[in-house]
Amino acid sequence: MLYDLSLHMGYIYDAPASGARHIVRLLPLSLTNRQRLIAGSLKVTPHPDEQSNFADFFQHSATSILVRDPHEKLDIRMQARVQVESQPVAADFSPLLAKLPDEVSDCWSVDPSSPHHFLASSPRLPETGEIASYSRQWKTTNLTTMQIAHAICSQIHKDFVYDAKATTVDTTPKEAFRLKRGVCQDFSHVMIIALRSLGIPAGYVSGFLRTIPPPGKERLEGADAMHAWVRVWCGETAGWIELDPTNNIPAGTDHIVVAYGRDYSDVAPVIGVLKGYGSQKTVQAVDVVPVKQ
């Protein structure tokens, strides 16, 4: 699938802000045999006094910007063309859960894709007893690691209600778990903690999801949004798979990857600091448009 992406992210301040320094992660990745960033651009208004590109630990393309002078709003626009390849259906060569620790121990690499980075607590995902108890039912089953990952994905999709008003970006997984409501970030964070509590390496994926309007309805421009799903390490042979608990599906050609991390804090699309007071209003609009070939 070939897509044209466009994103508008705006911050409107109650009072002019200054000394704003931000890191922006919005451009899709190029991933071997998965997806290719053909072209992409990032525009920031007001024009930054300083702007530089770098790759973070997880090898994501990130942009650092600095706006010194007072400004009433910050406007970020991204455009990209991305080719996403369909993935073959892989056989389940993952080990039983009891055998997975041996395969983790046999992995000596500590590169960004190493499972060792995705086993322990991370900044937004502390150990949570309630979620560990929720996943304990799979600990004594005779299922493979991959089967358990799919089962937890399905269970979260069944037990949780998608509700964009129930949580915010700062809602903790424990709070979302008690509510059994939330958005893709909440679904993904709960699933990651559940998997890690069983000793299964799991991480957070930030990206875009192509949405299809209901039959008879026109597609609304700008109605799409950024999305999140889960990456699961299923042993040395099976490697990493990606599951979307919000929709209870494996990530496919409608999922476009921007960044991988341990949790949302590693992949936040915009993060930073500024001098100011009062509150701010955030606006966001995303278009994921298939290109006819």
Protein architecture, described:
- By secondary structure, the chain is of the alpha+beta class.
- The chain has two domains: 106 residues, Immunoglobulin-like (Sandwich), CATH 2.60.40; 170 residues, Roll (C8orf32 fold).
- It has six helices and 14 strands.
- The strands form three sheets. Strands 1, 2, 3, 4, 5, 13 and 14 form a seven-stranded antiparallel beta sheet that branches.
- The longest helix has 15 residues.
- It is globular and about 60 Å long.
- The relative contact order is 0.23.
Question: Could you outline the blueprint of secondary structure elements for this entry?
Answer:
Blueprint: E1 2-24, E2 35-45, E3 50-55, E4 61-67, E5 71-84, H1 100-105, H2 129-135, H3 145-159, E6 161-162, H4 173-179, E7 181-182, H5 184-197, E8 202-209, E9 226-233, E10 240-244, E11 249-250, E12 255-261, H6 264-267, E13 270-275, E14 280-290
Parallel strand pairs: 6-7
Antiparallel strand pairs: 1-4, 1-5, 1-13, 1-14, 2-5, 3-4, 8-9, 8-12, 9-10, 10-11
GO biological process, one term: proteolysis
GO molecular function, one term: peptidase activity
Domain Transglutaminase-like: 176-247
Summarize the structure.
This protein has six helices and 14 strands.
- Specify the helix fraction band: 10-25%
According to CATH, what is the class of the largest domain? Answer: Alpha Beta
> Beta fraction of the residues?
35-45%
Q: Helical element count?
A: 6
Count of the separate structural domains = 2
Domain Transglutaminase-like: 176-247
Keywords: Hydrolase, Protease
GO molecular function: peptidase activity
Pfam family, one: Transglut_core
